[in-house]
Each structure stands twice: as C-alpha cells, then as structure tokens.
Amino acid sequence: MSRSKNMEQNTKQNKELTKRNPIVVVMGHIDHGKTTLLDYIRKTNVAEKESGGITQHIGAYEAILGSKDGESGKITFIDTPGHEAFSKMRSRGARVADLAILVVAADDGVKPQTKEALEAIKSAGIPFIVALNKMDKPGANAEKTKKDLAENDALIEEWGGKIPLVPISAKTGEGVSELLEVLAIASDIEDLKADSQAKASGVVIESHLDSKRGNTATLIIQNGILRQGEYIVIGKSFSPVRIFEDFAGHTVKEALYGQPARVVGFNILPEVGLMFQTVDSKKEAEELIRQETAKTEPSFVRTESTAGETAFEIPVIIKADVAGSAEAIENEIKKLESEKLKIKILRSGAGPINEDDVKLASSSPDSIIVGFKVRLDKTVPELAERFKTAIKTFEIIYEITDWLREEIKNRLPEEIIEKELGRAKILKIFKQGAKDQIVGGRVLSGVVVSGKKFRIKRRANILGEGRIQELEQNKTRTPQVEEGKEFGVRLFSKLALAEGDEIEVIEEEKIKPDI
Length: 515
What we know:
Low-confidence stretches: 1-14, 50-58, 67-72, 80-85, 89-94, 296-308
Mean pLDDT: 82
Strand order of the largest sheet: 13-12-17-9-10-16-14
Distance between the termini: 40 Å
Largest sheet: 7 strands, antiparallel
Number of helices: 11
Oligomer: single chain
Helix content: 25-40%
Shape: elongated
Structural class: alpha+beta
Strand content: 35-45%
C-alpha cells in the first residue's frame, strides 16, 4: 500500500479528527505578481517573525487568516520552490496543496504559463481562486481578463461559474485581506481534517545541502504530528528528527498537521516531491529503505510511439535569460523527437542554473540541463559532478540542438543491424551432440563465414538459430566458403538440423541510432 493511501486510511479510521491549516500554492504566468503577492503576505500577515530577523527561504510559511483563534486562523503558503513540488506530485497522482491561487495580471490577461497553471490545478483536482492582480495599473482591463479566463474553461462566479475572483494589487496591498478571507471560506468548505494521533506524513517541497549542517529538507505535514526523536523516511533517505525547525527558523520539538517544518541530517539528499512518513526507530527506517531500494527506476522511460514501437524518453531542463528564449529553445529541442525518441521537458524557464535544477535532474537518470545566456550558481558544478548530470551553457541557440543531438545519441542504446551474408543447404548430417553438430552443405548464395550467427529454415519457416564454430573446405580449415562450393562445418545450435534444411548466415553490427 502506498504511503498516501496509508495516510488516508489512518485518517479515516480515527473518528477524533481535528481541523487543520489549509495548504495553498500560488501559481501563474511569469511577471504577473506571484512573488510580489507572497512577499506582501509575508510582511503583513506572517504568523511570527523570522529567527534573527532574517527572512528564511525554506519554501513555505504560515500566515494569519484574519483571526488569531488557534490553528483555524492560519494558512500555510507554499512559496515558489513549492511550485516545483506541486508539478512533481501531480505526476505521481498525489496532492501537495489543498487550494490554489491563480495570479493573473489585469493588464496582460491569460498567457501561456497561466494556461499551464490552469492545467496543473485541474490535474491535481483542487479548488482555486483567481487573484486579479495589478488593478492599480492604468492599463488594467478586468473584463477582458475575465473573458480570457472563460475562454480557457475558468468561469468565475460573477459570470455564473464556481470560481471566486478577487481584484487585488500585490504592490499596494489593495484587496489582499479580502483574498485571504475568501481563502478562509474556501478552506471551511473543504473541511480539511487531520488525525492528531497519527505519525506525521506529508510531502517534501524543498531540499538542499547546507554546507555547515548537511542535507536539509523542508516538509509540509499533511497528517499527524512530527515529534523530536522520531525518524523520517523519504524514498531511500532517512534522518533522525534532531535539528528540527519551524518555517521561521526557530527550534521546535513538534510540528502539527498543516504546518511546514525543516529537518536537518538526512543520509542522502531527499528528492523534492516525494511523500515522507515517520517511524519510531532507526531499525524501522532502515527496513522501509530496504523496501524502497528494491524498486528500480530505468534510465530511460519507454513509451509507445504512434507506430506502436517502443520509444525512449529523455528528460531535459532548459534555463534561459528570458522566458521567451526558453520557449524558443524548447520548440527547437522538440524538433529532435521521432518515433524512437521522446523528449520530456522537466523544467523550462528564466534564471540561472541552480541547485534545484540539478536536484530535479538527478531524480531522472541521464537528464540533461541546457542553459542559454545564463550563469551557473557557484554550488552547481560540484553538485552536477556528484550526480553525474550533464550541463552546458550557450550564447547561440542553434548550437544547442547540435550539442544536444550528440548528447542524446550517447544516451540511446545501440541498435543491432543484421545483414545476410549468404545461404547454404544442409546435405549431410555427420554427428549430432547436445550442444554442437557436424554437418556438410553447399553454399547457395553469398558466403558462409566462420564465427557468424545463422538462422535455420525448414520449408520456408524459421525454426531457430545458432553460430558457426569451425568451417572446412576440402578438409582444410578456412575462414569462409563462397557460392557454389561444398563445405563441412561444426555448428553450435540447440535445434537438431536435418538434411534439406537451409541456413541463413548473418552479420550483426551495432550502431548508434540516428536522431
């Protein structure tokens, strides 16, 4: 049984369920104001001050929902790194967030990443609220944006649909308190519950190597309570819960359902997007690791092509100076696809190549990271070498596909091409053993060559195959016998040959496939 199913089953079995914080992810097109909105909420509604007065970039934090009457008055926001976890969990059929905010700029309308975000939200099956941002700008056109949303199957309440829309300005804060109130109502409708008696379980939304403290993961607890002294298991990694902090960087002894938490000390870096579970002892943790190790992930994902043949899927991450360049590169890379090759874009966007990119690539063996007019964060080369991840940056777009074509060729398995060298007829059987046979024959066409593979044909049907071990002509060892000549030969074949059979002699050649 999967960990998520275990969590659900434990929750259902316990009748004493408790209301928990809603977990919200903020999504939308680049430059539409996601970060500005989150920053405003962080500054004005954050539940407590960060440790040492420094903003803690752990990917999630708690904010006040307009009341301070316990957990019902708080909300957990997944920050930008959590957006990546949301995408990964979507592919695993699980949910990171309970609700989503779709940020759409009123002066720009629905854009490509807005559509992608809508698809992601629909795939996850979670309710969402539209935050119509930049209402303070002179070019804001709310009605046009509402029309754009309706054309993309996002019908707002004002237009007879079920999706709430709140006009805001993330820059000035106008409408943000109303947005949080709508979130509170949506959360109440969802009736989010958790089991206070269960072991903590949830999802990894961020992980990184802290140079001073070691492998660190940020977790969202979806059920149960995480306590100091327990052990966390994430895929093939585990950690004792010793160095244990809340979202603001304060040391804590426990964290509740619906809250974010940071744990330090994993044996290997946990993969973003995986579910975690908690056990009491190291022995239990190691047993779960053994079970996980038994599962293997192939370097290539086989998919069915349109012709019914097996295709290979190669993961690629694209980082560029601007989003438009990333989209152009993605279009060029997709032109390399064929019936034999599918390219999966793990991530495509603007900004430097960072640790998160390498960690995402490491979750899919043989991934490739391509950069265009961007730099590498200083920790990236060492991390890429450790994970054996290929990275290269470029200044000219067309050079990317040339380099990528060779990189992909090196990753694809060799193809075996068979060429028929000749055919021969068996005239006489001299000896038949368990593994080999001595026979006489005549070359009908081409040549018979020592050491080569052959197929056995009887009355036009292929019955089996074998290999030529020793070839003689006129009782003299020879490397090959030509058309029209008779020969004696020792063959290796599990199938007993009979007089009148034909053999087709084949030469095999391994080649790198063309793409």
